[in-house]
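Hello forum,

I keep getting stuck at the same step: I have a sequence, I want structure tokens, and every attempt I make locally crashes halfway through. Rather than fight my setup again tonight, could one of you with a working pipeline run this one for me? It's a single chain of 132 residues.
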Amino acid sequence: MLEKERNYPFYSWIRGNKTHLWTNIIRLSLREKRLQRERKTIEKMMHIFCKSKHNHGKQLCEKCQKQLDYAFQRIDHCPFKEKKPACKKCNIHCYKPDMAHATREIMRFSGPRMLFYHPILATWHMVDLMRF
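Reply #2:
Ran it on my machine without issues. Output:
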């Protein structure tokens, strides 16, 4: 790979080699935005759960907001950062047992529904589960 191709992921596409375009886009998405994507995914799951179970509109109820804040705190303080595996596969269990149980319940309920509400996030979540 040329030095320009490594520094500029779309360089090969500009030169006319379009086969590497999607490979480069996927590589960038996986590398740069892993934690942002995880934060967005858990937030969307929490909204689906709270809207269905607690009959709240666009705002989360107090309990769900507290759970979401805790999840964000755990993601922000993860020692693995961008190389963070899915919490399900992690060796370090940093969630408190009661919070982990609540998060599992939310993910069990919201996970299948994510395919309908947010299919791209659901797909990336599955890719992350397989990768790490």
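Confidence is low (pLDDT under 50) at residues 1-7, 9-14. If your local run keeps crashing, start a new thread with the error log.
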